[in-house]
C-alpha cells in the first residue's frame, strides 16, 4: 500500500481545510484505452492500475502511468499478439509485474479461440513471462452469445471453457484467473466470482459494470458502490477493473471520466473515493476527516450521501456502534471540531482514545435525514499518531465528516474578515461586535453545542458566564465565519 495518499490537498494554507482520505486501493483499476495524462491525474488518488487490451499504452501517454505510480498491465489480446513489441515495452518498463492472457477467447467477436487453440498458443505467453519474471493472468472469460465451438461443445459457459482449457493444457502456467461480469445485482456478482474460486488462484475481475436491460444513473451508482465494497472485502479477489472510462451520457451510464474534460463524472467520484479501510494509513489533522474512511468499525453501514459535500456518509447507526480513525497530529492543542450530521433524533458522539473520552459532540435533530447541520466540540489532542474512536451513544442520524480546524485560524475565509470584528478576546465584560451589512445572522454556543443565542447580530453581548464560546456568523450569501471567544 502506498502510504499517506489523500483524496485532496490543502489548497490554501491559511483559508481552507484539507480533505483527509484513505490510501488508494491496490486492487482497483480501469479498463480503458483513450486516456490522457490528466485523466490519470484525476484517477490516481483511488486507482492503482490500468490496461487497454494492448501490449502498451498509446504513444502519447506511453510513460504517463509511471508519473502517477500506476501499473500498466500489457495484454496478449489473441494468439496473433505482437510478441516482440510486447518484449520491447516490458524491457523498457521494468516495473511491469503481470501479463494478461487472451481477451474473451470464447467470443467469436473477441479473441475467437477454442480451448485447444488457446492452449497451443499459451507457451508464447509463458516464454515472455519467464524471460521477464512476470506472473500470468489467464484467459478472461464471460458468458457469451456468439461463441466458439469445438468437438460438439459451444462455449457459452465460461466455466466449461476454462475446464477444457486446463484439460488441454495441464502443464500450462496460469498464476491468476481473469473474468468479466456485467450482471446488475451485487449478490449475483458475488455468486459469479465465488464459482471461480474452484480454480484455487487469485481472481482478476478485468471488466465489470451493471449492463443488463435499462440501467439508470442512480442504479449504476448504487451497484458500483456496493460492488466495490464487496470486491475490496473478498480476499480471493486480487484486482478488479471498471469498464469503462468515457461513455455517452445515457444508459447504462458507465463512464467515470467526463466527455469534455479530464475530470471525474459523478460515477467516477464514487469509483475513486470509495474507501479501502486501510489501518496503515494516517490522516493529517487539521482537516476534514471523511467518516467513511474508518480503519475499523462495529455495526454501521455506508451509503452514498445526499449532502452537498462529500460522496459517502456513515449510516444505519445504532447506539453503541463505533468507528475508528488513524490520525497524525502536528502539535499539542485544543482542536475546534465540527461534526456534519443529519437525523431525526438528538444524541451524542463520544470521541475516545483508548478508554478516555476526549470530547463529546452533542446534537439536536435536524428534522430529517436529508437536512444537514454542523455541531461543535473542542477536542484536546497531543502531537503524534493516534487512534480515535467515535462511539455513537444514540441512533437515528447519519454522519458525513468531522472538520478539525487549525487552532491558529478561526475563520474559514480570510477575505471576509475585513468588515467583521469581535473584541475584546478574552473578555471580562461585554463583547463588542462590528459587522458589515452583509452579515445578518449570529449563533452563540458553547463547546459542547449548547446554544445561548440565535438571531440577528447585536452590537454587544453581556451576561455570558465564564467559559469558551463559539460565535458563528452567517452572511446573506451563505458564508460562515466562526470565532472562538473566551469569557473570563
From TrEMBL:
SUPFAM superfamilies: (Trans)glycosidases, Galactose-binding domain-like
Lyase as UniProt keyword: no
InterPro entries (UniProt xref): ASL1, Asl1_glyco_hydro_catalytic, CBM6, Cellulose-bd_IV, Galactose-bd-like_sf, GH, Secre_tail
Gene Ontology BP terms: fungal-type cell wall polysaccharide metabolic process
TM region(s), chain numbering: none
Molecular function per GO: carbohydrate binding
Pfam families membership: CBM_6, Glyco_hydro_cc, Por_Secre_tail
Domain CBM6: 287-405
Keyword annotations: Signal
Coiled coil: none
PANTHER family given in the database record: ALKALI-SENSITIVE LINKAGE PROTEIN 1
Protein name: Phosphoribosylformylglycinamidine synthase
